[in-house]
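Section 3.1 - Work completed
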Amino acid sequence: MKAFITGGGGFLGNHLTHYFQETGIEYFAPTRGEIDLTDFTKLKSLTDEFSHIFHLAAHTQAGDWCLTHPGEQWIVNQQINTNLLSWWSGYQPNAKLISIGTSCSYSPNLPMVENNYLSGEPIGSLYTYAMTKRMLLQGQRALSQQYGLKFLHVIPSTLYGPSYHLDGRQMHFIFDLIRKILLGKHLGEEVCLWGDGNQRRELIHVEDFILNLMSLVSRDAEGEFNLGAGEDYPIRDFAEVISKVVNFDSKFIVYDEARYVGAKAKLLDITKARAFLPEYANRPLETGIKETVNWFLHTRAFLK
């Protein structure tokens, strides 16, 4: 395998490149300074031929960022995805494209099974990002239909684990919960979480996600696959687990119901992936939380 990776500097990208290093897979993961994906001439300048393209790059952030940047998000993601698809079909037709979708693309009114990925309406607050990912999938389908190209589109639940970014961007909910609870313990202060705490979320450890992803790749899987834990929990339950791990009294956690919470629930149906992957990686939640908390403590990330 010789892989090209977009978004190699992100959370998932960092873990994937580490996996490739550990397993001896040859790869090229250029920085934005080396290859700006919004500039097609940069992609065309590449002369190497790749067997696999891992498309992880996306212009988005956690929290309420999507509410205030829908136009920017649409234009930049469409540029990135169209350029990548054009390069794939025109310059790397022998490569298999492995792209990352989002659970946000599913309608909250339909079961989150792969056949429903393009059906119904995504949640309004995340609509633009959801539709750029739907467009990405349809682009892959169209190019596959016309030119016989091979692709795999993987939809993860929220990824978590150590080595999250520390560059000031908003954090996905689980990292924000850990940071707030650790900081509350450190300062001896009350912890305020967004929403009423009843919104439900699903997590899969980033290393387990990569193991499952690479198992799909090694088995030459094609089409769409959900990769999640197959179970979800209320935010209040996550807060309780974190409090237990860090020895924080959860009675000092309060909830601000006026704040943005996103979707009320997101639970992926992973029946297809489990049938395809008999040895499906998914460590216990408390184990993964402990690993992530230990990273926060080691790096003092909760103080940044």
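Second construct:
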Amino acid sequence: MKITPLQAMARAASTLVSDHDVTDVLARLLADAADSLDACAAGMLLLRPHGLLEVLTATSHRALDLELYQAQERRGPCAEAATTDASVVATDLASIRDRWPDLAPLVESAGYVAVQAHPLHWHGQVLGALNVFHDRELLSPADDLGQAFADVATLVLVTPTQLSTRTLTALVDAALSGRTVIEQAKGVLAYRLAVSTEQAYTELLRRAREGGSSVTATARLIVRDAYSS
């Protein structure tokens, strides 16, 4: 039974709150990604030190062979996405032949006619890429959904299976600290603008959005300004 993208994301997220096998979770996620994107296969490359590419997993032997080729030759959609930190889409065989003439015969013989790849990026660092293979031309590539699956895969990769009590406490304390400064900023804005706290929070969100900053960082600036004035 085909699951929805939301169900696929929820299933992956649910594994992160308990002990999990990273490779197993990613294999399931890749299958869900292919299903959600109406594709027939998916694979994943990881970027190692010194720019080396290695295959982590794939949903089929045909996809695995294509990932191995890309890792070895450093050419193809997944290799490009992993080394440029940008999504790569080829909507038909003509596009694939034009961009990767050496890879095109392998893609065609595997029964695929279109590909898309999305980088796994984490705080400015590229960890690899997710590759999806289609057996029909892409009229409207689902770039956002493909990248969403790549982002979830990144979270699976970087989320530790175990955290010490001290680390967990520190994370909770940091979250509560952020909430505290936001409440303080709401109070400052409510007083200065003579508005309700609800309106003050809306103003805080607006300032954060327009300033291109986080809500917590914006709140800290408001509180700092209040104390210094």
